[in-house]
Fold this protein.
Amino acid sequence: MRLCAAAGVLVCATVAHAGPAETYPLSKVQRGQTGYGMTTFAGTTPERFTFEVVSVVRNFLPKQDIVLVKSDDPKVQVSGFWQGMSGSPLYLDDKLLCAFSYGFRFNKVAIGGCTPIEYMKKDGDAYRRNTPVQAASKTGPRIVQASAASIQDWRRLTPTVDAAAALAALGPARKSWLLSAPLPAPLTKPSPIDGDQTLTASVPLTVAGFSAPAFGQLEKLFAETNVVPMRAGGTSGTKLENGGPRKFVMGGSIAVELIRGDMAAAAVGTVSYVDGDKVLAFGHPMFQTGETYAPVSTAYVHTVIPSAQSAFVMGSAVNEIGSLVQDRQSAIMADTGLRSPTVPVDISITSGAGKHSETGTFHVELLNNKFFTPALTGAALMNAINYYLPDRDDVTARVESTVRIKGHDPISFVDYMYANDGASSVMGSVRGLRVLVPLLLNPYAPVAIERVEIKVDLKFEANFGEIKELKLPMAELIPGQRNLVKVLMSTWDGKDIVEEIPVDVPMSLAGGIVQLEVTAGDSARLDAAPPVDLPSLLAAFRKLLPGNVWAVTLYAADEGIAVEGKLVRDLPASAQDKLRPQSHTQRAQPYKPLSRTIAPAKRVVNGSATTLVRVRAVTR
């Protein structure tokens, strides 16, 4: 499997192609004309099938007509037109007219719509925001910048799968404002009409190596898109006797790879048009996200599965030979002169202890995309856990996660969690996953994720405590020294236990009333100012506490100010009053100062408890 030379860079390999096909003008199309199409029924070699023009539907989509066609060819009589056939080129008088792209569900006759090639060519020529940093040559490689849009672009690019869905796909999390960024709203898929009998576009996402729960996560993630996950493929890099095709041909299969490695997910369709390095396919969008980058490969068709609802293709990616560049209304466009970077994810899972412990690993590469990478990483982790540890029982999990970022030091987290129904239900709290969303969607600067590493240590035990209340040995806290507070917790078997937790009380709080809060480290409020740039965002992430410690926090009654991403404590009231009118911006905001003590926890801690307490005055 080929990887890009450096994260955030697309590197090309030269591939030779024949000249472009001659096209048939839409203006000359008439009802009753007959022609032929090319598609791949099995293997890698396209075959002919015949069709007849039914009609031309004007303005079927905004400023786009389609051609209705039907076929009585014996090759399509059993299955009809199928998902994965999208992009199959159709010819009149041996000239390329259109690409098959739309079909009906539950139809009794092989009838559907095709997208005229002139619309596809126009969308394929759409302006690219990224510019080459090295001029293309006939023999040398071509390099372009990563696919991340400029900071001004990211808010106006609203994808079909939004960041809220990406976070939701990871499951519930312990609360942290830093892991809940302002997120763009999703585009909604039109509601089905008449039992979903309308002309629709579907792209089969052939999925391999996924358990049922993880497969369900993929279904939720892509529910509002044209992409339909199906257990209908094998892992990428399928081995063929001749090595498989290494160039795209019209009517041949094409796979857009979202996941590859020990598990795989690839959107499979058909090549419509080839002109040098430019390849047009599908005849409709995948996600309709405009300029979008992902690895594209030739594909092997195992077979076409007939279905009363909608037939579909079983296929597997074979050889990566290009990169997706455009995903637009009439087509996707790939460039065989480019290679798209992926995000490697390494997952290690250990269960048990001592001589009974077992360790398993998964290694995958994921689509490098700020809207999809977090949720795909979560699905991969869930899948790995369900494979090695499907047990639905009490489990305590210690998870170490590291996110490696190009040009910056890695960010690492330790999470300590408990669940009574198996390990997969706690994985949504892994901060190495949840941090990907605000990182990739930050409004300050593009971020290139080089690798994600996750180590999961599971023990099938109920080692947790639920906080019930705080008990103070004395009526007052003593300033300038370490105090002890008692925390009453209930365990899984209903027993109550008490732990003593230290709290350091600074002299500055003497004589005041403070709010005392006790919680687990990974549930504690972050002691950092709201970020104002990428360095301050990364610095804030590094201040997030691990999940295997107590966080005992004292909140004073007075206020401080967060200015330019830095905390200014103990300001006089006059200074606070002058800064407060600007507090609606991130440049100067009121900040509640705190004093925190960290102590090791003996078990997973759930919940929190707070109380008001007086700090003893100092007599002089």
